[in-house]
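Sanity check

After download, print the first record. It should look like this:
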Amino acid sequence: QVQLVESGGGSVEAGESLRLSCEVSGYPYRRYCVGWFRQAPGKEREGVAAIGQWDTTRYALSVKGRFTISRDADKKTLYLQMASLTPEDTGTYYCAAGPREVGSLYPRIYTIWGQGTEVTVSS
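Expected structure tokens:
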């Protein structure tokens, strides 16, 4: 059974950093992409960063230059390094896996989701 389990969320002040982790158990698909998404209260889930089969990355404009997506060589752990956090980054962060070689920021292509981890940034 494939599972994605996020960790590393917490409460920080604006300007600080956090690193989220996502443990991937099992191989979701032979070739797949993984991504980070977030959902703020009352808002739709949005793509933050994604990484494809060949380690190409995509970032939302709102986080480009501040967030970095990466993973271990064995692809068992996905990370999201977040720097210069702002209150607008507050939300529940999810990792997800989808059956595509190229990473995407569109939630609908992802079929396996973690349970989420909370990030709160205070001003």
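If your output differs, re-run the checksum step. Summary of this record's structure: The CA atoms of residues 19 and 81 lie 4 Å apart.
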